Predict the structure.
Amino acid sequence: MRTKLAEDMGLEFPIFAFTHCRDVAAAVSKAGGLGVLGVAGHGLKGLRAELEWIEKEVEGKPFGVDLLLPTRFVGSEQGGLDAGQLDEKIPQEHRRFVDELLAKHGVPSLPADVELTPEFSVGYEKQRDVIELVFSHPISLIASALGPPPGWMIERGRSRGVKVAALAGTVDHARRHAEAGVDIVVAQGYEAGGHTGEISTMVLVPEVVDAVGSLPVLAAGGIGNGRQLTAALALGAQGVWTGSVWLTTEEAETHPVVKEKFLRASSRDTIRSRSLTGKPARQLRSAWTEAWDDPENPDPLPMPLQPRLVREAQARIQRTAHKSPGAEQLINYFVGQIVGSLNQVKSVRSVIEELVQEYADTMERLDSWIED
Ligand SMILES: Cc1cc2nc3c(=O)[nH]c(=O)nc-3n(C[C@H](O)[C@H](O)[C@H](O)COP(=O)(O)O)c2cc1C
């Protein structure tokens, strides 16, 4: 698996792991891959602590970060709106619907002293502090999702020897990223967990590889075992970018109720839904996604109104899912179609070892089919 990209980045294996959990990120880097911490949802202070922790833990091994940098969202023409302006745009009908949904499921209220997760902020300018902060740490890679990274981020990466990557769900996205000057394109297919487009990994990866010339491409979406990894490399990718497979590892801080649901789920149990973020994101089906999917009910609002609308409701669901049957029915999380194969809790290291071993076995099997 000695791809040029792996060699350039000093990786034993070209296995990139997107995760919101610092323990997973560090464990992947220590096992020879590249842990990439998703910074969405971390406040500035929390993020600094997470990065310092990973830095110490990996002892010089490379790690990266990932940011959500959407180009299109409510208020994007003005570079983003303030909290009051955003609140004014949320219809009463939607607020009522969320309240009624939680009441119908008997979800308890939050105690008064609860601190909610940081607000979801969008817009290059609003993210500038975050980008400055991550560049003050010894990262090897910075990735942007939902849009090309701004020119100054690419410049900053270049001057510091940090690879800049961007996620693409179509070949047009990939071309735009290449024109913007990124170092790596992540071609992420329909089956992936999180924000995702409509083209499958099998179709998208070779299209993107052919479109971006010499730029290295990572394949993402539906990669959870060594046969899928081998297929991704066969499609022309120089490595794989994974997400879902880490959610059921020992190290993952996935909500215990969600982890159990993932372990039981089949590959049919996910849906692309705008109900958490306002943009289509693949997640586990639950009473939450069913309610938002029902044509009788209001449609989810666009980003960033929907995450603002559901922030408190989601906190209520997560805090009580272990004791409230209604919250247990509602709770869900982002995950891809490979959730159907996530049936056992394993350590991060053993997931990497299995990926690598199955890759070697698959290559041997394919090799044995070639006639001399
Ligand atoms: C729980 C979860 C959260 C995600 N959040 C982000 C994110 O904030 N930024 C991002 O670039 N990708 C995000 N993704 C997508 C991953 O980067 C990755 O492309 C995807 O998980 C690959 O497909 P797979 O889930 O089938 O492995 C997320 C994926 C999951 C499963």
